[in-house]
Amino acid sequence: MKIKHTILLLVIALWFLTGTANAFVFTPQKVAPNVYAFIGDTGMRTYENAGMNANAGFIVTAQGVVVVDSGSSYLVAKAMHQAIKHITTQPVKYVINTGGQDHRWLGNSYFKEIGAEIISSSKALADMQDRGAAELTALQPELKDKFTGTRATYPTHLINKMETLKLGGEDIQILYFYGGHTPGDNVVWLPSKRILFSGDLIFVDRMLGIWPFSNTRDWLASFAEIEKLQPLIIVPGHGQVCDIARAQHDTRDYLLLLRNHMRKAIDDGVDLQTAVDTLDQSAYSYLKNFQLLSGGNANRTYLEVESE
Description:
This is MBL fold metallo-hydrolase. Helices cover about 40% and strands about 20% of the residues.
């Protein structure tokens, strides 16, 4: 009888360990009273980080919660909600997608199921519709069982330039400038607290990525609009919560380095390979993923500036 009891306990323990091994646990970081951030991994998308290599967050009001970015999958969104419920009993009323990258919106289906309204810019919606199928196809083999339940669920409440949500005495502004990292990048601004959720317009601690759908000229124009807001606290799209000076160094100044070098190279008739080889990016070698992304960033910036 003792042997049977011991075996049963072992089976239960094994089930518990395997059943929870893939569970997501998110710990919100308090940014200010009633404002929280989920700080994601600064590496690339992996099975271990459930594709959540980006930041998200939420704002608690007396009439409900506003989530900023729904995460990389249905299960990630569900785990984020579990963490929110440890902070407040208020329901999630709105989810704002700050852009069309997978980790900004692929958790929408979970939040829609619980009755939240999904908001984003009209250009982000177009980007999601254009690249969503490819994003789903790319993540499925990497995330495997952690991608269960994930499907493309688009925002239904669209903005073009600016809209203010008034909820529980809090004004929450959704602002679209010019895009940048993706065409639909928008930000969430809390004017009373001067807190900004920047989405992918700001990267710190890790190197930003410039992709075929990115536009560095628009990115810098959007950054200039962010500077006009004079935020005190920034929850960047990637990296630790920061101030504007850190954002300027890790994002704006790096983009300026790329564009200024490539503009001069093109004006001087220098070919792409030579322009890339003579670009000194070593001042940013401390950023995570530098070796992986710096070469591609230089190549794509040259091609972009050449086409202007």
